[in-house]
Each structure stands twice: as structure tokens, then as C-alpha cells.
Amino acid sequence: MWNGVKKFFSKWAGVFGMAGGLINGIINHDWSLLQAQATSLVTGFVTGGPIGALTAVATTSFMSLPPAQQLTRFMANEVYDDIFGFSPRTAYIIAYIDVSMATSMAFESAFANIMADPGVVKDFDINNPKHRDLIKNEKYGYNTYGGPPDPTNPEAVANWVAAGKVKVIEGANGNMALVGSRPYALGSVHTGANSPNFPKALNMKYPSNLPRNLQGFTFGWCHQASNATLLKAGFSNIVTDIFPNYFTYATTFVYGNYGGGLVQKAYSGYQAYNNWEKGRQ
Fold this sequence. Notes:
This protein has 2 domains: 2-115 and 263-277, no CATH class; 120-257, no CATH class. The longest helix has 32 residues, at 32-63. The chain has helices at 2-12, 17-28, 32-63, 66-81, 88-115, 129-136, 158-163, 212-218, 222-232, 239-242, 246-255, 261-277, and strands at residues 120-123, 165-170, 176-183, 189-194. 58% of the residues lie in helices and 9% in strands. The chain has a 4-stranded antiparallel beta sheet. It has 281 residues and is of the alpha+beta class. The protein contains 12 helices and 4 strands; from the N terminus they run H-H-H-H-H-E-H-H-E-E-E-H-H-H-H-H.
């Protein structure tokens, strides 16, 4: 009976998150999962805030489970080794990153929809009194690294209406948010968002817990900051749905919807390398 319990937790501890990692460490004297979860928790929070921490821990936990390991091996052998001709180790590392990235995006979306609901996206209408008041009145949001005009500025942003696109997001509870897009270099778009429901104390601060000069590398860019603003204001809408553009998709692929994804991908690569070296693949 006891051996069965130990064997179960050696394979399925990740189902129970960090509690499972702790139990596995105690009964099997294997602390590797808990160490990986703790590292994911810290790096996820520092680079992506609370949702980054939740996503990182959930992804690390899932990747320790047999189904994730089987899928990773299948992709490594059947796709990256047989089709593309990579060496077995390189194929495994790439496959591991792919599976963890897809898992991370799924968890990120799930957590966002638990934290907030999607609002109805409408074109800004200057003849709508609610929209005019929303433009004129104070509203707040994270710094999106863009020069003026910027919707995260609590001043009126009528020049965004002229120079780009402004959408209004309306929630079922009457809450509202603005999200704007304007052309940038090489056909890309710069985005920003704000809302009266965003905490005033966080206005124009940076979304992650690192200095400004590290934000672009560790957290992401204006698209991630816009999504983080909307989530903090109570909306799970994301800019790739509102303003589809090759650049919004590109930054989301690298950093995720809410930032920190690049660091997590690097850590996934490190975990994959360790797994291969220790024969855990």
C-alpha cells in the first residue's frame, strides 16, 4: 500500500501543484519538482505578476505528468527527429518547449477568464454620452512604453481617435475601458489601454516587478501591458482579438498575453536540458 502511494506521487504529484511537489519530496526524498515549481513561481511573479506566477507553476506541474512527457517524446521522435533531422537531445528540448508553451497559453487564458469576464467591444462613438465621458474623465492604466498620445494618460485622448483606432469595452456590470491602437513602424501597431476601474495607485507604473530597462526583455511590450491593464480593470479581452496584427501576434508568441513568457520559455529549455541529462525524458 505504502509503496503504491509513493509510486503514485512519483508520477502524478504535479496534479496537486506545489502541495504535490512537497508531498513527493517528503515521501520519496525527491525535491526536484518542488524546486522547479518554486523557481517558476518566483520568476513568473517577478516577470509577469500574479497571473504569470500562477501560469508558470501550473505549466511546470503539468509538464511533470506522464501525458505531457508522452506528448513531448512523441513530438521529439516523430516530428523534430524523424522529419526535421535534429539530434535526439535537440529534438527533445524543442518539443518540450513547444508543449510547455502551448500549455502555458492555455493556463494563462483559463486563469484570465477566472479573474475577469470578457466585455463587449464597440467602436468609440463621439455621439455616445458614455463614450464622451469616458474619454474626458480620469482613467488609469499601466505604462505601455509608448510616446504620446497614449491612452494610459488620464487626459483626453481624442488624438488617438484621429491617428489610430479606439475601442470601448463595456462590461455587464457597467464598467468600461478604452483600448487604442495606432500605426507604428513597418506596419506594426502600438496599443494602450486604460479604465476608471484600474487602480489609481498603479497608474503609469510598469506591469512587472523589474526596472524599466529590463521590462522589454523580461515582461513584454505595449501589447502585454495593454492586456494587463484590461485584466486589472476587470476585463479578459486581449489585443490580438481587438487589433489583430502580425506584431501583436508576434509579441504574444514570445511573451504570452500577460508578459513574462520569454523568461519562462528559457526556463523550460533549461528544464528540458536537465531532464535529458538526468534521463527523465
